[in-house]
Amino acid sequence: MNELVTTFFNLDVLAEVWPLLLQGFWMTLALAAVAVPLSVLTGIAIAMAQDVPSKLLRFLLIAYVDVLRAIPPLVLLIFIFFGLPFLGLKLNEFTAAVLALTLNGSSYFAEIFRAGIESVPKGQREAARSTGLSWYKSMIHVVVPQGTRNVLPDLVSNTVELVKQTSIASAVALQELLRSAQLAQGLLYNPTPLIAAAIVYFLMFWPFVRLVSRLQNRTAVSAA
């Protein structure tokens, strides 16, 4: 038992590396604070644009969503950070990570918002247009708010998944939480930092997991 504690739950090691882990934690939050809003806004814009009559635009947007959902975010990040410089565009680690997360995340948010928009009865749109609202204003003020409520559990769940994916930034040596834990483990040859990082991730996401479950149960009750 003592050997287990010393190896995986060493408080002396944790105290020594905690500043490094804290630095990584703030970087993870910074990535999420930028990537999540950008992904949500881009996803809403794509979902709304798929409602326009232009077949070419809808085809391009569907291709955007399908392609980016098919590419793993880690592969996308590696291409952006290591591939784009060959095309004359070099991004720093933070910008490359945000771009990869936003491109991947927006494709999933777009599908969720599209499903929400399609769940709103057409009569709601017609009623909004009959009051003199333009297509854009009727979407923003009537359709999108109702559609968002209909898919709220999926939106929260996808947000949690996107924040989890910030760990891919370690592939380009950006010192987020996972990268910080790996560096700390390498310095002290002790897995305690990785265990600590896992606990931090759990404490971050568990409340949101419970929120998703509650929203799903509430939606199921309302549907019944």
From TrEMBL:
InterPro entries: AA_ABC_transptr_permease_3TM, ArtM/GltK/GlnP/TcyL/YhdX-like, MetI-like, MetI-like_sf. Residues 25-212 form the ABC transmembrane type-1 domain. The keyword Membrane applies. The chain crosses the membrane at residues 20-47, 59-82, 187-209. It is a multi-pass membrane protein. It is found in: Cell inner membrane; Cell membrane. CDD domains: TM_PBP2. GO terms for cellular component: ATP-binding cassette (ABC) transporter complex. Keywords: Amino-acid transport, Cell membrane, Membrane, Transmembrane, Transmembrane helix, Transport. GO terms for molecular function: transmembrane transporter activity. GO terms for biological process: amino acid transport. Belongs to the binding-protein-dependent transport system permease family. HisMQ subfamily. Part of the binding-protein-dependent transport system for glutamine; probably responsible for the translocation of the substrate across the membrane. This is Polar amino acid ABC transporter permease.
